[in-house]
Amino acid sequence: MSNNTGEPFRYDAEVRPGEKRHIMYEVGESFLGDPIEIPVTIINGVNEGPRVFVSAAMHGDEVNGVKVVQEVADRYDPQELSGTIVCLHVLNVPGYRSHLRYLPIYDRDLNRSFPGSENGNEGKRIAKVIYDRFISQCDIGVDFHTSTRDKVTIFHTRADMSDPAVAEVANAFLSSVVLDGAGSEGMMRRVASENGIPTITIEMGEAHRYQPAMVDLALENLHNLFAYFGVIDDEFESEPPWQRIVGSKEKKWIRATAGGWVDMDWGPYPIVEEGKSVCTISDHFKREEHVVVASFTGLVIGMAANPITVPGQIVAHVVSIDEDDRKIIEEIVDEQGYSRIGTYHWMGRRVTPKEDLRRSTDEPTTPDEPETTESEPERGTA
Ligand SMILES: [Zn+2]
Fold it and tell me: What cofactors does this protein use (predicted)?
């Protein structure tokens, strides 16, 4: 219902209540001296209400969120809004043009450059314009990311849950898995949240990929968030049906212990079991097999997308879960499959139960290949 109480939205121009405006906004200059412009849509509702920004491609190769923002910009009508939706389609335009995470060519991380500065490096200058013109004019924010290239991440939220205002945003987005923490210095969500603009980061899928099922989930959750905060008039849930808030000590990057080919040993659910094999790394002749063992039972929230590894490279990102969590995760996977929560390449238990049993032991075992005249093969555990 319209009561026409909306206010103009000001960046350095004005978008009047009831107007949707698409603009290209200059945030810097390219090496040719021409403007770097970011695509922005401002949907200013006829009624007053909170101002929510949604942003994507802070890292230029993380494109799932670009589709989310494009859809938001298209589907909401200012005549039906109470408040404002500010769509920052592509924050890092130079990176996006080059399909690169960072600002080319000196690898500035735009997401460590906030709130920016007028006299700083090129990243800080761009951040300053984005922050002053758009972010600081908003009340709430959702910033969309994916994993870095050659990694996969399930759909999850990163948010400072110790801040009640941020937790409210995370819950309104129906965040099931939340990595709790304020984030690094210079991160947009951290700076915005500290300045009273509670902001969360959504991680979804892979860099360089368009994963429609996850985009749809993000749009559904955003719709719930808009309804919860009264930006749109619709039914909403106040929190997700299940939530796992993960503290800093409850997650672990599991790293390769050898170079070679990685075979994941978990499945069919994205769960690794304490004391059991996460993956086996083998050389080309299968003379050496290194088993990477899980130190706790956990949900695989991320993993390498590339099966070729060297010692120290990440093979999986795992968060601890209890038995109740496990049941719910299994139900979700049984009901929805994997597509909505994430992609798991080359996932699966490709070993027989007997082999699995052998691999689950902590003690090194003797390989069962026939004796050869070559040097003694070794098998190690890690
Ligand atoms: Zn990112």
Answer: Zn(2+)
- Is there a contact between 299 and 313 (Cβ–Cβ < 8 Å)? no
Q: What is the pLDDT along the chain (382 residues), one digit of tens a residue?
A: 557 889 999 998 999 999 999 999 999 999 999 999 999 999 999 999 999 999 999 999 999 999 999 999 999 999 999 999 999 999 999 999 999 999 998 899 999 999 999 999 999 999 999 999 999 999 999 999 999 988 989 999 999 999 999 999 999 999 999 999 999 999 999 999 999 999 999 999 999 999 998 999 999 999 999 999 999 999 999 999 999 999 988 999 999 999 999 999 888 888 999 999 999 999 999 998 999 999 999 999 999 989 999 999 999 999 999 999 999 998 988 887 776 666 665 555 444 444 444 544 444 443 343 333 333 333 333 3
The span from the CA of 230 to the CA of 6, in Å, is 13
- Termini Cα distance of the chain: 62
CA distances in angstroms from 274 to 279, 344, 355, 371, listed in the order given: 13, 20, 17, 33
Task: Give residue 29 CA to ligand 1 midpoint distance, Å.
Answer: 23
What is the CATH T-level fold of the domain 9-246, as seen in this structure? Aminopeptidase (3.40.630)
The ipTM estimated for the assembled molecules is 0.99
Domain limits, the chain: 9-246, 252-381
Structure tokens at 293: 């063992």
Residue with tokens 């969590």: 325
Tell me, in angstroms, the distance from the centre of ligand 1 to residue 65's CA: 10
Angle separating helix axes 212-228 and 64-75, nearest 10 degrees: 50
Question: Do 104 and 28 touch, CB atoms closer than 8 A?
Answer: no
Give the pair of three-digit tokens for residue 178.
Answer: 């939340």
The domain made up of 252-381 has a fold known as OB fold (Dihydrolipoamide Acetyltransferase, E2P) (2.40.50)
If we measure between CA atoms, which residue out of 224, 124, 215 comes closest to residue 173?
A: 224
CA 148 / ligand 1 centre spacing (Å): 7
What string of DSSP letters covers 230-269?
TSS-S---SS-SS-EEE-GGGEEEEE-SSSEEEEE---SS
Q: Ligand 1 centre and the CA of 101: distance in Å? A: 7
State how far the Cα of 76 lies from the Cα of 81, in Å rounded to an integer: 8
